[in-house]
Protein 1
Amino acid sequence: MSKKKSSKSSILPQDIEEKRTRVSMQLDAPKNTESYDNHNVFSSLGFDNRFNLEDFKKNFQIKVISSSEEEAIFDLIGIDAAIANALRRITISEVPSMAIEHVFIVNNTSVIQDEVLAHRLGLIPIKVDPRKFDYRSTAPNQETQISDTDTISFSLDVTCTRNPKAPDDAQPDELYLNRCVYSRDLIWKPTGRQTDQYENIRPVHEDILLAKLVPGQNINLEVQCVKGIGKTHAKWQLVNTASYRLLPEIKIVEPITGDEAKKLVETCPMGVFDIEDYKKTTKAVVSKPRQCTMCRECIRQPEFADNIKLNRVKDHFIFSVESSGILLPTEIFSEAIKIFMNKIDALQEEIESLAKADEPEDE
């Protein structure tokens, strides 16, 4: 009997290997979308499908495609969809931030109800590193006790008045002073040692409109920011969005030349195909596969249906993380990985404790 290989070297027939590693995009629906996790699913072919840590270490890669203060796009290569989705969900809902939780309204004579105003305030992202703060205690009789390590305070006091220098035919923005209340009107009130530790805590965006006033109306309030996670409320989300898609793979089976090549280039709305010289004529080539959205417009044409294969690579994820501006996208994803590793450690400890509990006691 031949010994099974522990490494997932490609010893499977080509059609089976494609079924294992690729999602096939057909006109009616994608096929081969399932993951083959069972270790002996290909045992009859002499292929050991079990997870191999050494193979994972060798194949796993993170490639940064682009990175800015607002968005990071990177590739995660060599992982299962379950892990990629776990990292996406943690990035959205479990990486903590500081957000307005308590609103104390002294006076509000605007047309906006107190609860609506409080909701708008809560959704303002606050530019401060949440890793430097602690969670506020939820123990009985301690919820109202605040400190400089778990709370950030702001005040807002805006009154609308008439502009004595405005002409009679002026627009409302010129007729009135402080007509609009913006996020920049929130004034940080440092407590304890916060003045020494932070230069200026402020909203990420200073032009978020909170309310519009007319002369005589006033909004006077104080707010407190505390640490929390998006799973509790969306206001604590550090990202606007975090998403991924599988890497597109487009193959041209037989050369597409001449007028058909031009038609193929014109058919694709995303500019995936291009034309290059080929044996005294021209042929179509795949020049920008990452731009493919799998709209399948190309294979809707009868002449291309059997000549173009559209696949997605099952273990190659194109990640996009868009930050709300509090932390860099790369920092947010790094924190998500740390949280994921802590979850794995906690699970391992729980499994070990259950295993010890099941062990028979020595007489």
Note: Confidence is low (pLDDT under 50) at residues 1-6.
Protein 2
Amino acid sequence: MLVDMREEQVLAVIVAVCVCVSAEQFSAEHRLMKRLFENYNPMVRPRWDTSKPVDVRLTYYVAGISGVSEKQQTITLFGWLKLEWVDEFLRWQQDHYDNQTLLVVPSYKLWTPDVIFDNGFVHGSSCMHACMTDRLDCSVGQRFFDSQHYLARLYSDGSVRWEPGGPMMLSCRFDLTAYPFDLQRCIIKLVTWANTGGRVNTYTGGLDFTFYEENGEWRIVQTEAKNFTFINDGESYCEVHLFIHMKRKPLFHVLYIVCPIVLLSILNCLVFCLPSESGEKVTLSLNVLLAFSVFLLMIIDIMPSTADRIPNIGVYITTFMVMSSISVITTVFVINMHQKRGDKPVPACLQRVCQLVLCKRTPPSDDADDADGASGPHGIDWKDVARGTDRLAFILFVVFISSFASVIVVKGYQII
């Protein structure tokens, strides 16, 4: 019984000590917060020497690519922007406050730089337009990322680290000439909205992909970061450009777009190998033409409505739609010649051309003409003319398809 009482007393003492220590720590943090923000004004730049700018380091952490719209010329990134600067008004001696080195405070209590995404969109409007029409603070966190959910870290030496984040839609000019083997470059433009370079000096900390999750369609191949200064109304402003070079993973597009188009091109040639007696030449030609039309609509649905750059694959499909139309017209003439009776003889010049195409020898003079007069002096009738037209069209189509496809491929590789 005595032992139990002693154990309870010891436990009570331990709990009391823990409570006292916790209360003391809370009290030190409470006193520190009260002293720092008692006369602090978040509208004033945190510089004792107001002639010098506040240096702000900008680092963008890319967590993933949420979406890419070639038609709308936009890319949606998910990540957060880390802003780092020194607040000279918020410094303290650690030993005076139980060695407190860090405070986590709401960002609205601090001065924050008015950095915006110059090429960003908010609810369908550009960030710049939102800043011009909204009376709220236009800082990157308070205006675009709902900063109430993002706290700032304040250190004893006055350094501040603030990391607002979320999805951000950015404008990006896509060059789809080499689609689906294209390489794109998108820019993240960060600029101070009201403060000039003499008040706030922003500089890049680069792009960070530590937490990046690989995208299924795009692969990041290179990144760049540059600092710029531009003049507006006689005043200089700082701007940070972050470049993302990304390459499309073409496997899906090759399997479901490029390969069917190539197969349809081959079918376009095989129309002329189909015998006229089958009665399906025109049907096959029209089916190939309609298939090309469907694929062209698919490409149009992906591509932006711009005349600056036309995708090579779009030129390829349009060209072969024209070739398919020529194929239909040629097939109609071939069937017409095949069904033609021998009441009208084949012209001599046409007979000589068909003889060369069909590699047919001139028959003996006594067999030059057939019974009904359909064949000429070279032994060529209208059915031979139809077969010769088919063979000539087949050769011309194969040569054209091979040459045109080679030009498209070489041009695409030059662009890449």
Note: Confidence is low (pLDDT under 50) at residues 19-25, 367-374.
Protein 3
Amino acid sequence: EDVYRPENCRGKARKLIIGTHLLQHKKWVEYYNSPSDVPPPPSLHVKCQGKPGTGKSFVIMTSRNITRKLSKSNLAGGVCAPIGCASTLISGMTMHCLFKIPTGKDTLYK
């Protein structure tokens, strides 16, 4: 969507996270275009937490759109949230679904 773009980012923390994501993406592109003897850059995992209205969903959706545009793929990695409502807001899935954690009494005690 047009709303979730790096240009629309306000605030120093949001800009820092988006900028770090872009830099990490650049490092991986350089790694794939270099000779095979170069070690890969470290993976970047982001845990986004904060109070309501601080822009967590914006940062997640913007990072996902950056990844989709730069890699020219609709795959954006695993995005999850602890509960269903939050996962719906970020177009992701719950942690239980992503990591295939069994839920319910019947599945826990078999």
Note: The CA atoms of residues 57 and 90 lie 6 Å apart.
Protein 4
Amino acid sequence: ICYSFCTLLWLRTPSPSKMQHDDESEESYHNTAMNHPVWSKKELKRYRNMNEMYVDDIHIGFFYKPRMVLLLALTMVGLLWMALGDDPSDQSLPATQYSVAKGGAACVVVFLIFSSAALPNGPFVRPHPAVWRCVLGVSILYWLLLVFLLFQTRSSVRRAIVWLNGAEIDYMAPEDSPEYANDCSFTAANLWSRVDVFVIAHSLGWVAKALMLRSVWLCWLISIGWEVTEVLFSGVLPNFSECWWDQVLFDVLLCNALGIYIGSWLSKYLECREYRWESITDVPSLTGKVKRALLQFTPSEWTQVQWDPFSSSRRTACTIFLCFMVLLTDLSTFFLKHILMLPTKHRINVFRLVLWASFGMPALRQLYIYMTDSCVKRLGTQSWVACGVLITELLICIKFGRGFFDSSQMFSVLVLWSCVTSLIVLVGMALAEMAKVSRWRAVILRKRNSSLAGMQPATNPDTKKQN
């Protein structure tokens, strides 16, 4: 340990000649990167803003300086402490299970440390780029776990979940049972019985989607597509069997509409807000410093989003792709829950939703930049990983669903769902474009009328009498 810290101190004090050499090498690397044979200077800059966003306003330099040697030394010390700190025989679990669990946890920690140091920043810098590097690392670990589960059997995965849970899982909760939609009488008692924690969760989910998409028509398009998905898959998944008033009143008019309205209002508020950040060292009071530290967890800016699906072929394809990806993400949630026989309130479902919300934000941002910026020629790292995660989840549903569902019924439902959803998406995009064109036409006519009214000459009474 002493040798590591002495080496660290020696590396922290470079000689002037070495500093000059480093500056020259950095400048040569920068010039080489700018003269890339495939990418132009503009394309390289745009891609870095999407995949490797730099922090411009650094107020406390200590948290942004690279300390790779110190990080490596602390990691090795932590691994030594974890390996020699306790005896597996003193634990309640068997020695083999405890060693495997501890070794797996150590692998996850080491990979997250590597992610925070080596992976790209992504499109966000708040609260710190290392946070979004760790989010990318967690998504990669989740993808590797899904690839591992893809080569297992459904029974073995089920036994592993029961072993991690510590007891047998009760799958037939009231909200998961097929008898959930038997009583569809439109009474006050029946309506009140549907009000539970899932109503709040449903609304908060749409608030998050509205903040991420920042488009009312796109949110409503996905909302209608999801309600159609529930109707089409109600014969396959019992959880989709709902009463008509439950789907119309609670899902569409209450949860979806309220979540979209609140999320759109927050998005408009954040767009109109002025972002002017002050260094925490310049704040005089302690209360002000605490407030500035908490504001570090808020966005540094808020970008206005314009999807415009018919302005280019890339925008059209990416908008359709985005709608299908959002619907498939929600659909795989219910399929995995049903195939693996997990109750809705199980922590695995909650962990998966939190995980998708975490890496869905940078993935959606990178997809939007790739869709709207013609200088960006490749998809961002987080978007690429998110697509891989979703496709692997669908492959798991297909593999584990064989023998669990009727193949002919599932194939016909999937074909019908693809056709109906494509039609809804295309019609919704066309209606949104027509509404936009009509708004622009009204604005142009208003400006033309005002300009013509200003160009009319003033009439005096004498000229009018002569005429």
Note: Residues 184 and 190 are 8 Å apart (CA to CA).
